[in-house]
Amino acid sequence: MPGVSEPVSKSRYKRVLLKLSGEALLGEKGFGISTDVLNQIASEIRRVLDLGLQLAIVVGGGNIFRGVSQSANGMDRSTADYMGMLATVMNAVAIQDATERVGIATRVQSAIEIRQLAEPYIRRRAVRHLEKDRVVIFAAGTGNPFFTTDTAAALRGMEIGADVLLKATKVDGVYDSDPVKNPDARRYRTVSFDDVIQKNIRVMDSTAFALCRDNKLPIIVFNMTREGNIERVIAGESVGTTISNDVKTQFAEE
User: Which one of 88, 190, 228, 242 is at 20 to 30 Å from 171 when CA atoms are compared?
Assistant: First the structure.
């Protein structure tokens, strides 16, 4: 597929938190989980682990149910959010199955107790799994309503001491305006946290963004639908948009 890079030999990071949206698991489907996407994700995870890093994943549930979606209209918000958490558990177990089929030791930890499917979330146990080169998938968000899986990704990333939060999306990065509505929208190669706030750029929800900014956890937003992009980002190639306290704001074409 286009965009596949030559194999690289080393990861730029020691420990990475990868945020996968539930919508990313749809593929060409309108609802549910695409086995083709699962297999692609598992294959890419297999390659990036060979670079010598520790990988944790937070997965959303928007392909099945979201607490703020139209399907939740009229529901009590807490009830709808708990249903969304259950959707993330389904996605996490599906990713676990796909990764284990390619020989990757994987553990699912859930912020709500579902012992038949997942371990309860325990930070020290999660870190120990990572140290043993197991992939850890965090499900059920933070376990609390009114918080998004973006916030869960920021929180878990800081708890496990991740070097970077990778936000995998269906777009190439962060733009100065909506690229769907504006064909002249420009993609940022790097942008500072302060500029994101001043320019009111929507990267993730404000709670998640503030956590990353205040705790100096850099974010890289990139397109996961291009095969090989996860590996390229982890190798330190200029893919997507990097958001950090330590960068100057630059557009991709500069």
Answer: 88
SS3 of the chain: the string is: CCCCCCCCCCCCCCEEEEEECHHHHCCCCCCCCCHHHHHHHHHHHHHHHCCCCEEEEEECCCCCCCCCCHHHCCCCHHHHHHHHHHHHHHHHHHHHHHHHCCCCCEEEEECCCCCCCCEECCHHHHHHHHHCCCEEEEECCCCCCCCCHHHHHHHHHHHCCCCEEEEEECCCCCECCCCCCCCCCCEEEEEEHHHHHHCCCCCCCHHHHHHHHHCCCCEEEEECCCCCHHHHHHCCCCCCEEEECCCCCEECCC
Query: What is the domain extent for residue 225?
Result: 15-251
* Dihedral sign, Cα of residue 221, residue 223, residue 229, residue 232: negative
**90-126 per-position pLDDT tens digit:** 999 999 999 999 999 999 999 999 999 999 999 999 9
Residue 116 lies in a domain: yes
**CATH code assigned at 179:** 3.40.1160.10
Residue 6 lies in a domain: no
225-251 residue pLDDT tens: 888 899 999 988 989 999 999 888 999
Residue 49 lies in a domain: yes
Question: Structural domain tally of the chain?
Answer: 1
